[in-house]
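Hey,
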Amino acid sequence: MQENYVDKNFSSLVSDLQKLIQQPSVSAKNLGLEECAGLIVRMMKKSGIHAETLRIKKGIPPAIYGEVKSKQNPDKTLLFYNHYDVQPEEPLELWDDKPFSGKIKGNKIYGRGSADDKGELITRIKAVEAFLKTTGDVPCNIKFFIEGEEEIGSVHIEDYLQKYEKKLSCNAVIWEFGYVDEKNRPIISLGMKGLLYVELSKKESIRDAHSSLAVIVENPAWRLVEALKTLRNMDGKILIKDWYKEVDKFTKEDLLIINSEPFDENSFKKEYGIRKFVGNKKGMAIKKALVGEPTCNIAGFTSGYDGPGAKTVLPSKALVKIDFRLIPKMDPQKQLLRLKKHLKENGFGDIEVKLIHGEAAARTKISDPFVKTVKKAADESFGTSILSVSSAGTGPMFSFVKFLKSPCIAIGSTYVFSRIHSPNEFARIDLLRKTTKCMCKIIRNFASQ
């Protein structure tokens, strides 16, 4: 019944998503966040969902809370976590159309946030609407928590979860996104990697100098390069002492699932235009790395002149941004101390280390009943689905487990090559339809679990 409603009213899902895309909401620039939050509240209310904004203090982007109480099953609650902020749209010159156009071309809706995360959000809202419009009730209590800072590290997520812990209490959480592979199979992720994001900087002199002085004045860019070389080897292994100390090995059950996960090496290489993987990884080694190995990635390096042509300058300062992906039992604060100790012991104590963001990793156990509930719905909606021990990406899942003490599972409509965080981001319309129906099935299955 609900799936028929989704089909008959699908045009409203598409038009609502276009409206969401056309409302910029870039957290990195503090652009359009209040306006987008207000738009979502109005959309949710129109769908029959009680909706309100939540706040912790002035100047912090509001979160959105939604709720529908079940008459038939008031003791069971499913929470949808999503976010309404998006990545910056730059570089503008690489977009085929305006970044916030919401333009439809064939089976795709283009625009920043079309997939990450406004497309995902609209499938959740419309699934709940389908129940309310067809039965006037929902099979279990439904809650929404939609934040506006996910793209800048969910910096106030724990403040929200702590303040509104009782309001957000639930039995299980559907996470904000989920990939669909090139064979149209949804990837059900049972976890998220953690993150330690830092800036390493070195200031050598009071101003830039003529590069002829490089024979006597230290170049801070070289200083950082030398320090960076001590952090990891060519195969990607992190060389910081005790970096892996608390990490558990994969269980036999984990390895069985990892081994069954599909990964088309040639397709991936073609999509990104690469010839080989880090450390020449192949087969199972690639899969294990994606779901369960930490990383040390240079996200940006700034120093000296980067304009057109030549300028013979010796820069006075240099800065590098590094993100370390963490896995379960890696504590961001402890890893930060290990990084600082490593630099000092290797003769780089003069390099300043600034913490930008840190969050721990989390995983839901494969044996949790909620896993079967979601898997059954995904198989029915898509024909088949793939279980994954963990996403290769990061989100504040650990905070939800910490405060709400509920299993979290990621499943959604984001095509694996939908260019999220890149120019020409898009959502596939067919996957939005399938995912909305899948959300209906998850709600039903969970209510009877």
